[in-house]
Amino acid sequence: MSYREYRSPVGLEPLVACLWESEPVAGRTTRVIPDGCVDLVWLGSELVVAGPDTGPWVTGAAGESSCAIRLRPGAAGAVLGLPASELRDLRVGIELVWGVAGREIGDALGAADPRQRLRILTETVLQRRAAPDPLAVAAARRLAEPAAKVSTAAADLGISERQLNRRMQNAVGYGPKMLARVARLRRLIVQPDEEPLATRAFAAGYASQAHMNDEVRRLTGLTPVQFLKDATLTAA
Q: 178-222, pLDDT tens digit by residue?
């Protein structure tokens, strides 16, 4: 797969992590791992919402060129206008979320060329006039830190763990514990390749190499060696 990311359009940085384009490569599959984001993806003939994943999402090599706009953790609920948890681990057509307006956006994308499609996706998010839940965004930052605890994050933000879980379910699509697990996996990716796996596991925040093995399998469907061989850090 040929994959390219572009920076968030000016003015949409609080909501948008990046824009991206992808070209399928014959004989290769695509494996998407959890990142706390929600994407609006044009798949060549349909605009779909790729909800927040809690495990790997693997697709075949067949397919057309695709492009998307990626919403940051905490932005999906506000942009989509519904609790992000309703889309967890799902891919749904945009018309099921935005009705007639969604179908019209899909029609416009179908008639556009590739560069116009990225502009249309940008304008679609801009016109929603949404603002991310500031508490969910603040919680996401805290939970991305090594050794972060949900109880501490909730206390720092002045709310109960139950309230934090509800706000995260609406804004991100899953609770703070899951988001902390995703953040830990992303920290693992950026550890130096030359270090032993046990060292990389500890540095990322896992209790042990065995703990890392279990978590990586659950989130990616691969062993750590298989996963880290080709892992790349995408915008989130």
A: 999 999 999 999 999 999 999 999 999 999 999 999 999 999 999
pLDDT at 176 over 70: yes
pLDDT interval class at 233 (50, 70, 90): confident
Model pTM? Answer: 0.93
DSSP structure class, residue 4: E
CA torsion sign for 64, 106, 41, 90 is negative
67 sits in which H/E element: strand 66-71
- Alpha carbons 87 and 173: distance in angstroms, whole number: 7
CA distance 30 to 41: 14
Q: For 20-52, give the DSSP string.
A: EEEE--TT--EEE---S-EEEEE-SS-EEEE--
Q: What region, left, alpha or beta, does residue 23 occupy, with left being phi > 0 and alpha being psi -120 to 50 degrees?
A: beta
Tokens of 56: 């790997």
The rounded percent of the chain whose pLDDT value lies above 90 is 86
d(CA 160, CA 153) in angstroms, rounded, equals 10
Q: Report residue 62's pLDDT band, with 50, 70 and 90 as the boundaries.
A: low
Cα distances from 204 to residues 123, 133, 148, 188, in angstroms, run 37, 27, 11, 5
Q: What is the dihedral of CA 54, 181, 67, 31, to 10 degrees?
A: -70
185 contacts 232 by C-beta, under 8 angstroms: no
Find tokens 């706390």 and name the residue. 36
Neighbouring CB atoms inside 10 A of 179's CB total 27
